[in-house]
Structures are given as structure tokens and as C-alpha cells.
Amino acid sequence: MSNAVIQLLVLAGIAIFLILRLKSVLGTREGFEKPDVPAETPDPRLSRRSFEVIEGGPDRDITDHVPEGSDAAKALAAMKRAEPAFNVTGFLQGARGAYEMILMAFEKGEIEKVRAFLAPEVYEAFEGVVKDREQQGLTVQAEFLGLRELTLAEAEFDNNTRDAELSVRFTGELISAVRDANGTVVEGDAKAAKKQRDVWTFARKMGSADPNWQLVATGG
After folding, report:
1. So where are the chain's domains?
2. Partner of 108 at 20 to 30 A CA spacing, among 45, 76, 94, 102?
3. pLDDT (tens digit per residue) in 57-99
């Protein structure tokens, strides 16, 4: 056997030895393996109690509008028991639209359009004013500019009859001018805005199939 062949056999033996040695040190992992991460110790301050929903607290739909525990709050809660779908915030949104609609109908002498939203005695009072203006030859120029205040002033509920009354305080801003038959302004100002302050009381029988509230009283 030549010296060259002997040298190749020796080198091959050394290479095999090194490969086996490396495998014993490095192991046989394939691809990328993430290092082991120690498990986090749970925070003792966090418990099941932290995620429990607190029930039986104050009804924000009521306490956002009247003091908690007040007579008005108790009346509103009774209304909700009589009619679970009733919502104070939703009522006030409806009252906002009703105020502008009824006020402008009255100013323009068009109260017949809103008759369904007026109690008979309120309709008669409005109608009397409108007819009196017509007899004097007066007309009203009016433009509603918006509401500056809308708050729930009072709430009453009769558990026996299920009759509910809600009084709302409005502060509106409008332009209103009364003109005589010649077109002369005799009241108000056709160019300057004025504040209109009212307290209106709406009534309805809770649980009734008719969802509409009626205006039963007006005041300042």
C-alpha cells in the first residue's frame, strides 16, 4: 500500500471522529428552536373578583338627569318597571324635537299640524291665542335658532293608574316678530334673537300601545 493511500485513510478516520464528537456536543436539533422562557408568576393582586361585573348599581339613565334617591328618580324607576322599554335619555331627545315643532307651529298659527301631541285643554288655549291674533290682523315671523338648555325638571308617576308626567325645562333661542296688517313690527324684532324659556309637562300612560307623549301644561 502506497504512502498516499495510507495518508487518505488516516485523514478520513480523523474526519469521522470529529463529526461524531460534534454531534455528541451539539445534539441533533433541526431548524430554529426558541429558548425556554420561565413561566411568569401570576400577580396576586389580580383575581376573579377583578373581572366580576358589579350589578345592582345606580341606573345611569336616571342619575344622569336627576339626583339619585330623589322623588323624581323613584318615579322614573317606577316608570321603567311599568314599561321596561322606557328610556329617559330617549324621551328627552324626543322632547327636544317636539319643543321646536310645537313652538314653531304655535308661532306660525299652524297648531292643527301638532294637535295629536297636545292635550285638549292645551290645544284650546293655543287655538284661542292664534284666533285672537287673526282677528287683530296680526302675523308672526319666526325662526328657531336652537336650544341652549334642556333639562328634566320633575317626574311623577301614579302606580295605580300608570299615568306618568315629566316636566322639561327648555331655553330656546329664536327670532320672532309680530306684524300688524300694514306689515309694521308691533312686537319682537325681526333681526335680533331672543331667549325663550319654558317649562313644559308631558304626560302618557306607561305601557300604553300609543307611544306618543302629550303636552299637558306649559309654564315659564
Report:
1. 59-219
2. 94
3. 789 999 999 999 999 999 999 999 999 999 999 999 999 999 9
CB-side neighbour CA atoms (13 Å) of 67: 3
CB atoms within 10 A of CB 134: 11
Instruction: Domain 59-219: give its CATH code.
Output: 3.10.450.240
Cα(58)–Cα(88) distance, integer angstroms: 14
User: In whole angstroms, how far apart are CA 204 and each of 5, 65, 161, 170?
Assistant: 113, 19, 11, 19
Contact between residue 208 and residue 215 where contact means Cβ atoms under 8 Å apart? no
C-beta neighbour count of 88 within 10 angstroms: 22
As given in the structure block, the three cell numbers for residue 181 are 296688517
